[in-house]
Structures are given as C-alpha cells and as structure tokens.
Amino acid sequence: MINNDVLRSLRYILNVNDQKLTEIIALSGGTTTIAAIKSFLLSDEDPKYVPCDDETMAHFLDGLIYFKRGKDESKPPMPFELPITNNVILKKLRVAFTLKEDDIHQILESADWKMGRSELSAFMRKKDHPNYRECGDQVLRYFLRGLKTRVHGA
C-alpha cells in the first residue's frame, strides 16, 4: 500500500492535525516540515503531491508507538525495517494500538474481511521464516477501515 494512503488513514483515525504529525515523527528522531506533511496528504493527481518515503514512514510508525504507549528511555530504539512493507505497517500498528491477535481478527471482521488465525500469524513472522506471508494491500486497507471503526465507532 502507498505510504501516503496509510498516513492519510492514520491521520484521520488519530484525529490529529499536520503539526501533530510532525511532532509524532519527531518522537522517533525524524524531522519533517508541515509543508512536507501537507504535500504527503494531497491527492495523487495534485501537482504538489509528493510520495512519502520509507524513512519518513518508519519514523512516523515508531513515533506513533511512542505517542500511543510512551517511550521507554531505558531501552535503545529499535532499528528501522526498511523498506516499509504492509507487514511492517501491520506489526507497528499492532504494537501502537496494543492489539492482540483476537483484536486484529475483530477489527478485520468488523470491516467484513474473514481471515484464519494461521494466515494472520503468517503476516507477523519474520521474512526469513518458512511460514511468512506477505500482507496484501487489500488486507491492510480492510484493517485500517476496521481500525477506524474501532476507534471512532460505527
């Protein structure tokens, strides 16, 4: 899924403004400007649209974890997983929103997407694991839709 679409969805789910997005990115040591955030959030057809790079997205996802759960200063920051894939996004959102496997199933079911437990656990595995499976754009879209419903209600 395109990083800009994920950023747009999460901005809506969190109900935050552009300034807050820059602050979330800064929590993980990233730097960006409000102008850059605005260009990330524009429609794909807009001439001022700029694709959100993987490093900015990685800083945003880690910053989101710190924003939602707090930062443990006693632990060193985790290294970024680049490139950012749908699996990485799903894992980071699971941590940020403190979701268990059952929560993720409920979120997907609330968005009318059925998935078995083994399929879901395959998304959470490391890439070199034999049962690893790539998370498709459609699954991530349904997850974000269900997460929006969970946070904002029907």
Account of the 3D structure:
This protein is an all-alpha fold and 154 residues long. The chain has 2 domains: 67 residues; 67 residues. The protein contains 8 helices and no strands. Helix 1 packs parallel to helix 8 and helix 2 packs across helix 4. The mean pLDDT is 94.
Q: Secondary-structure blueprint of this entry?
A:
Layout: H1 3-14, H2 18-27, H3 34-41, H4 54-69, H5 86-96, H6 101-110, H7 117-123, H8 137-152
List keywords for this structure.
single chain, 154 residues, mainly alpha, 2 domains, 58% helix
Described by its quaternary structure, the protein is single chain
Uncertain stretches of 5 or more adjacent residues: none
Question: What gross morphology would you assign?
Answer: globular
**What share of the residues does DSSP label as strand, in percent?**
under 5%
Number of domains: 2
Helix content: 55-70%
Instruction: List the secondary-structure elements in sequence, H or E.
Output: HHHHHHHH
How many helical stretches? 8
Major sheet size, sense and barrel closure: none
Secondary-structure content class? mainly alpha
Distance between the termini: 24 Å
pLDDT averaged over residues: 94
* β-strand number: 0
Report Rg.
Answer: 15 Å
